[in-house]
C-alpha cells in the first residue's frame, strides 16, 4: 500500500485545482496530482503514491548513488574508520 | 523502467554482500520499518546475501496490518447502511473483520468499490449526489496528504456527501514505542524512504541520539536496501548513532513542505490504537474540528465496536520485531493468504504474506502457494 513508483511527467494540465499531470510508468500513462510539486517540468521524473507525486527524482543524486554502487570496494577501503575516527562521508 | 532497473543490478548486490562480510565483526539486529521494504527484502532474498551475524526484523510499517479490527468492523457497519458507497484501496477490502470482510459486503450489497486514489472516491461522490460516499483511508505519512487533499477539496467544492473514515498512523511514535520497550533488541533502523519523502527526517535526529541508535533513511529497491543496511552496520561497527540518508534521489531533509502544510491544515495529531500493539500516544492523525462534517466516524453513528482477535495470531510480536512469521504455529497451516487469521497475512506488504509467498527461509512450514 505504501508502494510508490517513479514515472516521467508527460504533460501538465495548467491552471487546475488541484494541479494534475499525465505521468508515464514504463509506457502506461496515468493522471497524477502534482499539487505538492508545482515546480516540476515535463520530462522530469516524480515518485508517485496513490495518484499523488510526492517527490521529484533528483537525477544528479540518482547518478551519484549509482556511482557509489560501482565503487563499493573503494568506498570501504577509503572510508572505514576506527570507532572514534572522523565521520565517513558515504551516503551523504 | 528508469530509476528502478539500475537499482536491481546483481553485480553491485554481490559487491555489497562482500562489503558486509568484511565490515561485520559482531551480531547486529536491524529493523526495516516499512512493509514495502519487507516485501523487497523477502522477494529478492536480501537476507541470504547478509553475513549470518546480521538479523533483519520486520517492523510495523504495513498500514493495513496495524489497522485495528474494530476499525474494519466500523467500515463494514458503515457500508451496511442504506445509500452508502464505501471506497478504499484494494488491500483494505480483503482484511477480515470479526464477521466478514468488505469484499463480502461488496458481493452482498454491491456498494463497496476499490479505488486507486482518494481523489477517485471524491469523484464517485460528485457523480452520485444521492449516495453518501465514504473513503476508508488508512496509511502512514506517505498516504495521509492524499487523503487530506480529498477532504480539503470536498470542503472547497462543497461536496457534502463525501466523508473520510480515517485511520492514519505515524511512524516516529511507533519507533519510539519499540525502542522504549524492555524487550527491544533492535539496534539500528532503516527508516521508510517514502514516509520521509513527505515528512523529511528532522524528527529522527532526537530519536537517534536519545536511544543511541543509527537511523538510515532507505529506499525500496534491492540495492537501496543493501546500501541502507551497509550504512547502518558501518555506524554500528564504528559506534556511531546518526541519522543518514541513503535515499538521496527522493528524500530531502525537510520533506515535502507543501504536503506537510496541508496535513497541518486538515489533521491534528491524536493517540491511536495499533492492531497487535495497542494504543501509542500521539501516533495518529484525526480530522480537525473544521472538517467534522467530512469525518465518517462522526457523521455515522456506529458506536463502539469490540472485536476479538484470533488467539493463535502473534502479529503484535511480529510487528514489533520480537518474532518472525515462521515462529507462529498457525503460519501456513490455519493461516494462509486465502484464509488469513491476522492482517499481516492479508496485505501483500504484511510480513506473514511476504514469507508465505516467497518462502525465503528454509524450514519454514509454508505450504505450496
Ligand atoms: S501467520 Fe497468520 S496467525 Fe500467525 S502471526 Fe501471521 S497473520 Fe497472525
Short description:
The complex is a heterodimer of chains A (92) and B (369). Chain A is an alpha+beta fold. Chain A has helices at residues 59-70, 72-79; strands at 5-13, 20-25, 28-33, 45-49, 52-56.
Cross-sheet strand order for the largest sheet of chain B: 4-3-5-6-11-10
Q: Please report the first level of CATH classification, the CATH class of chain A.
A: Mainly Beta
Briefly note the structural class of the backbone of chain A.
Answer: alpha+beta
Please give the count of helices of chain A.
2
Mean pLDDT of chain A: 80
Name of the level-1 CATH class of the domain at 2-63 and 171-245 in chain B: Alpha Beta
The appropriate CATH architecture of chain A is: Roll
Overall form of chain B:
globular
Q: Helicity range of the residues of chain A?
A: 10-25%
CATH topology of chain A: SH3 type barrels
Work out the radius of gyration of chain B. Answer: 21 Å
Q: Which molecules are bound besides the chains? A: iron/sulfur cluster
Strand content of chain A: 25-35%
Shape of chain A: elongated
CATH superfamily of the domain at 2-63 and 171-245 in chain B: HypD, alpha/beta domain 1
CATH topology of the domain at 2-63 and 171-245 in chain B: Rossmann fold
Question: Structurally, how many domains make up the residues of chain A?
Answer: 1
Written description of the protein model:
The complex is a heterodimer of chains A (92) and B (369). Chain A starts with a strand and ends in a 13-residue tail after the last helix. In chain A, a hairpin with a 2-residue loop joins β2 (20-25) and β3 (28-33). A 5-stranded antiparallel beta sheet of chain A has the order 3-2-1-4-5, with no helix packed on it. Mean pLDDT of chain A is 80; it is low at 75-92. Chain A has a single domain (5-74), classed as SH3 type barrels, CATH 2.30.30.140. Chain A is α+β, with helices and mostly antiparallel strands. Chain A is elongated and about 45 Å long. Chain A has 2 helices and 5 strands. In chain B, α2 (35-43) packs parallel to α17 (351-358) and α8 (118-127) runs parallel beside α9 (144-157). In chain B, β10 and β11 (278-287) form a beta hairpin. Chain B has 17 helices and 11 strands. Chain B has helices spanning 10-23, 35-43, 46-49, 63-66, 69-79, 90-94, 102-109, 118-127, 144-157, 171-180, 193-199, 204-210, 222-238, 257-266, 296-299, 315-319, 351-358; strands at residues 28-34, 54-61, 84-88, 112-114, 132-139, 162-169, 188-192, 215-218, 243-245, 267-274, 278-287. With 369 residues, chain B is of the alpha/beta class. The longest helix of chain B is centred in the middle third of the chain and has 17 residues, at 222-238. The radius of gyration of chain B is 21 Å and the shape is globular. Chain B has a domain at 2-63 and 171-245: HypD, alpha/beta domain 1 (Rossmann fold, 3-Layer(aba) Sandwich), CATH 3.40.50. The interface between A and B is large, with 49 and 66 residues. The complex binds iron/sulfur cluster. Iron/sulfur cluster binds next to α16 of chain B. Residues 312-315, 318, 325, 328, 330-331, 335, 340-342, 344-345, 352 of chain B line the site of iron/sulfur cluster.
Amino acid at each position: 500500500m505504501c508502494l510508490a513508483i517513479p514515472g516521467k511527467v508527460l504533460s501538465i494540465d495548467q491552471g487546475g485545482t488541484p494541479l494534475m499531470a499525465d505521468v508515464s510508468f514504463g509506457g502506461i500513462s496515468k493522471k497524477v496530482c502534482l499539487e505538492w510539486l508545482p515546480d516540476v517540468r515535463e520530462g522530469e521524473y516524480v515518485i508517485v503514491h496513490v495518484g499523488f507525486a510526492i517527490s521529484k527524482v533528483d537525477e544528479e543524486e540518482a547518478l551519484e548513488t549509482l556511482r557509489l554502487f560501482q565503487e563499493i570496494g573503494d568506498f570501504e577501503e577509503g572510508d572505514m574508520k576506527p570507532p572514534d575516527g572522523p565521520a565517513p562521508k558515504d551516503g551523504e | 523502467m528508469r530509476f528502478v532497473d539500475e537499482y536491481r543490478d546483481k553485480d553491485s548486490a554481490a559487491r555489497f554482500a562482500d562489503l558486509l562480510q568484511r565490515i561485520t565483526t559482531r551480531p547486529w539486529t536491524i529493523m526495516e520499518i516499512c512493509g514495502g521494504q519487507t516485501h523487497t527484502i523477502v522477494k529478492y532474498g536480501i537476507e541470504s546475501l547478509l553475513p549470518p551475524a546480521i538479523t533483519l526484523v520486520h517492523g510495523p510499517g504495513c498500514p493495513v496490518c496495524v489497522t485495528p479490527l474494530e476499525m474494519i468492523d466500523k467500515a463494514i457497519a458503515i457500508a451496511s447502511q442504506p445509500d452508502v458507497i464505501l471506497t478504499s484501496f484494494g488491500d483494505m477490502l480483503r482484511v477480515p473483520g470479526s464477521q466478514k470482510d468488505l469484499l463480502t459486503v461488496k458481493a452482498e450489497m454491491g456498494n463497496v468499490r476499490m479505488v486507486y486514489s482518494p481523489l477517485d472516491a471524491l469523484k464517485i461522490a460528485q457523480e452520485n449526489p444521492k449516495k453518501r460516499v465514504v473513503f476508508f483511508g488508512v496509511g502512514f505519512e506517505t498516504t495521509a496528504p492524499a487523503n487530506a487533499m480529498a477532504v480539503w477539496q470536498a470542503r472547497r467544492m462543497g461536496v457534502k456527501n463525501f466523508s473520510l473514515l480515517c485511520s492514519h498512523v505515524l511512524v516516529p511514535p511507533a519507533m519510539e514505542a519499540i525502542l522504549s520497550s524492555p524487550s527491544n533488541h533492535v539496534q539500528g533502523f532503516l527508516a521508510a524512504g517514502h514516509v520521509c519523502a513527505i515528512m523529511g527526517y528532522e524528527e529522527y535526529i532526537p530519536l537517534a541520539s536519545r536511544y543511541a541508535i543509527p537511523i538510515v533513511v532507505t529506499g525500496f529497491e534491492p540495492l537501496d536496501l543493501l546500501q541502507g543496511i551497509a550504512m547502518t552496520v558501518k555506524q554500528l561497527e564504528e559506534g556511531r548513532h546518526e541519522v543518514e540518508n541513503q535515499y538521496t534521489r527522493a528524500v530531502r531533509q525537510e520533506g515535502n513542505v507543501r504536503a506537510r502544510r496541508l496535513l497541518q491544515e486538515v489533521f491534528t495529531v491524536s493517540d491511536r490504537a495499533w492492531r497487535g500493539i495497542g494504543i501509542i500516544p500521539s501516533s495518529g492523525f484525526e480530522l480537525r474540528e473544521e472538517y467534522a462534517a467530512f469525518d465518517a466516524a462522526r457523521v455515522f453513528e456506529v458506536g463502539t465496536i469490540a472485536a476479538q482477535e484470533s488467539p493463535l495470531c502473534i502479529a503484535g510480536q511480529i510487528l514489533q520485531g520480537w518474532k518472525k512469521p515462521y515462529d507462529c504455529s498457525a503460519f501456513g497451516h490455519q493461516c494462509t493468504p486465502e484464509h488469513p487469521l491476522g492482517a499481516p497475512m492479508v496485505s501483500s506488504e504484511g510480513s506473514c504474506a511476504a514469507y508465505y509467498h516467497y518462502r525465503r527461509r528454509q524450514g519454514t512450514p509454508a505450504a505450496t502457494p
